[in-house]
Every structure is written in C-alpha cells, then in structure tokens.
Amino acid sequence: MSRIEQLPSDTYDLILMDIQMPNMDGYKATQCIRHLNDKKKAEIPIIAMTANAFEEDKKRAIDAGMNGHIAKPVEIDKLISEILKYTEKDDAKLTKLENLISLGHRELIYTFLGKDM
C-alpha cells in the first residue's frame, strides 16, 4: 500500500491483485486502495487473480471493489481481454501487444505469470 501512496497517480494503468497475500489479503488491499484520498489512485482498475473460480468468489471480488476476476491457471487470451476492458484504448499499446502475441511472445507473458506452457 505504501508504494501506491508514494508514487505518482499515473504510475499504474491497472492492478492485478493476488487474493492470497501473506500480510494483507487482496480484498483488504483493494478496500484500502478504494479509500485513498487521491481519487485517480482510488479508482484504478483492479482485477482479482485467484485459483478460486466459483461464482461466489467472483462476487466477493466485485463486492470488495475489484473491477474484474481472472482464475488461475491464467489463460493468456482471457487475461489480455480482461486487461483491455479496463485500460485506456491506446492504439500504440494495443498494437505493441498484438505484435508481441503475433510474434510468438506469449512465452514471455506465461513466464512472467509463472505458468508452464
């Protein structure tokens, strides 16, 4: 939380929130973000990432103030689709993302997410 509070409000476009974190779970972290004084930071899109994929898990994430929900293991196409729903439609960023995908760079994203291909 302190990192988000310290950095400028335009540092992040979106947060992928792990629900099961050691010090503060993702629900509590989201509620803290939603109560920040900086309106831009408080309204940043937050997508839950969790192995809990039941409808009640999705509802709990939304009720906590998150915008979306992605189940683990992550399917890259669903992740990209969810990210694009909540981020600014910047043609340059979208083109770069599409180029990386078309060039076969899915491995980089999978590696970053810790998923086996």
Short description, anyone?
By secondary structure, the chain is mainly alpha-helical. It has helices spanning 2-6, 26-34, 39-42, 55-63, 76-86, 91-102, 106-113, and strands at residues 15-18, 46-50, 68-71.
Features:
globular; mainly alpha; 3 strands; 117 residues; single chain; 7 helices
Biggest sheet strand line-up: 1-2-3
Low-confidence stretches: none
Mean of residue pLDDT values: 82
Rg, nearest Å: 15 Å
**How does the major sheet shape up?**
3 strands, parallel
Relative helix content: 40-55%
Tally the helices.
7
The assigned structural class equals mainly alpha
Q: SSE string, helix = H, strand = E?
A: HEHHEHEHHH
Q: Could you give the count of β-strands?
A: 3
Q: DSSP strand (E) fraction?
A: 5-15%
Measured between the Cα atoms of the first and last residue, the distance is 32 Å
